[in-house]
Specification:
Strand order of the largest sheet: 1-2
CATH class: Mainly Alpha
Strand content: under 5%
CATH architecture: Up-down Bundle
CATH superfamily: dinb family like domain
Number of domains: 1
Structural class: mainly alpha
Length: 169
Amino acid sequence: MSISLYQASVPVFRQMLLALGDVLAKAEAHIEAKKVEPAVLLQTRLALDMFPLVRQVQIACDFANSVTARLAAVEVPAYDDSEQTVAGLKARIARTVATLDGMTEAQFAGSESLEIVLRPGTPKEKKLTGRAYLLAYGLPQFFFHVTTAYNVLRHNGVEIGKKDFMGSY
């Protein structure tokens, strides 16, 4: 039994983004209950050399969009990274999920053997098959940023647990 790259990507990205949106809703409740300054939480980072929460969410959405778009051979959606509120981040997640919902399994036909070029024309250029791009690069990058966003919130007292991270499956 084989699994298509559509099955290994779109439902996974969708599940985790919906869970991230739910975690952000809990962050909104935490902000209200604890009288936390929203901008402070959104700019919190786990280490000085890491991106803040707002950027972690943006990048997670970017990976879900770019990986699936490249595998489906469609234009990669571009967002302006202007979110400054939890509501703005939730809206970005909703836009990303809507993009994923518009993709079909047929668009991914043959994507396993596509050549994906990362950082073209630079010394860090790397060529991957579609399968390697998703499994060895795209999914790990996506999960890193979703996990980091979750950890920033958990570290700052938002009452969330593993089932919140996983969402519905």
